[in-house]
Amino acid sequence: MSYPSAVKIVEVGPRDGLQNESVSLDVATKVQLVHGLADTGLTIIEAGSFVSPKWVPQMAGSDDVFNQLSPSHATYTALTPNMRGLERAIECNVKEIAVFAAASEAFSQKNINCSIDESLEKFKAVTQKALDHNIAVRGYISCVAGCPYQGEVDYKNVRSIAQSLLDMGCYEISLGDTIGVATPAVTERLLSELLKAIEPSKLAMHMHDTYGRAIDNIKQSLAMGISTIDSSVAGLGGCPYAKGASGNVATEKVIALLDELDIVHGVDLQKLTQISQFICEKLGRPVFTD
Ligand code: HMG
Ligand code: MG
Questions:
Q1: What is the pLDDT of residue 203?
Q2: ∠ CA 128-239-183, rounded to 5°
């Protein structure tokens, strides 16, 4: 079995983490979090989301967060569900956005209030306009291993949505196990289907750790050539439209796995632990320990 020699970590804590925390943080704290994460060596940080504040109030101040971020080696990215979101991203000079589809019709309706096909139509226009503005676009697919509303999903459907997102100009597809139901066997079957048509370098794993299986699933995907992993400092968060979804796999746990497998990641664990403690204290959560 061979693993990649290096892995890119996409830190989603300031977005996926904070969007589902009951404590709403002020802009200064969010900015301090993002700066602290950049200081650890992380190169891609999802710093907020330009969605409707009525749907996700925790992300309401994202414009102010982006406007206060200092340039660094890190790319700061944002979720944009529609043209209004993209316009806000352009106003804040964001260099990378993400559109987010789902592999399940029921989840698509609950999360973004439209069908999968309607969402892909909207994302095509958003992606085109973003690329015209030299903004890179990432594509998410939620519920790739199962849906909280409709149960099983068809992996062929995941593949065709991934292909549509790539065709419209997304540079990478992040596969979201939104409710953490994947196992290594499920991960193997899902990726086998996707890798029939898509290069591993264009895929990322976005595993929520609801049942404590995220690390085993990530190990399986690394063995199948995937080299981009999403994670959230201290394992914060979840999805407000997937009841019971717990946080993303903790960045600390991913780093421990990569160190164990001797895979380069470029993150300073000591600095990460400090920023992890900082955000846990601000949220009133117990400090993360593995
Ligand atoms: P809608 O209600 O159908 O939209 O929501 P609308 O166009 O009818 O607009 C309704 C109101 O929202 C209007 O305001 C709009 O102006 C406003 P009003 O006239 O009522 O005052 N609005 C906006 N405001 C600011 N920014 C915007 C925006 N768009 C509309 N961009 C919509 C459709 C997509 C907007 C809504 O459903 C939404 O915001 N959904 C986002 C839900 C969300 O953020 N979910 C969590 C992120 S996804 C996730 O966590 C999964 C992931 O991590 C992967 C995984 O784990 O699987 C990525
Ligand atoms: Mg997520």
A1: 98
A2: 100
Confirm or reject: Cβ of 142 under 6 Å from ligand 1. yes
Cα gap 221→263, rounded to integer Å: 14
Contact assessment for residue 49 and residue 41, using Cβ atoms and an 8 Å cutoff: no
At residue 5, what are phi and psi to the nearest 5 degrees?
-80, -25
Check if 192 has its Cβ closer than 6 Å to any atom of ligand 1. no
So what's the pLDDT on residue 240? 64
Would the CB of 113 count as within 6 Å of ligand 1? yes
Residue 239 annotated among the catalytic residues of the structure: yes
Mean of pLDDT values over 246-264 = 96
pLDDT in tens, 13-53: 999 999 988 888 999 999 999 999 999 999 999 999 999 99
φ/ψ of 206, rounded to 5, equals: -130, 90
Strands (E), 105-145: 136-142
Nearest-ligand number for the alpha carbon of 177: 1
Residue 55 CA to ligand 1 centre (angstroms): 6
Buried b (16+ CB within 10 A) or exposed e, 90-117: bebebebbbbbbbbbbebbbbbbebebe
d(CA 224, CA 226): 6
Six-digit token pair at 186?
């499920």
Q: For 149-180, how does the pLDDT look when each residue is reduced to its tens digit (9 = 90+)?
A: 989 999 999 999 999 999 999 999 999 999 99
Helix (H, G, I), strand (E, B) or coil at 102: strand
Ligand that comes closest to the CA of residue 240? 1
CA-CA distance, 220 to 187, in Å (whole number)? 7
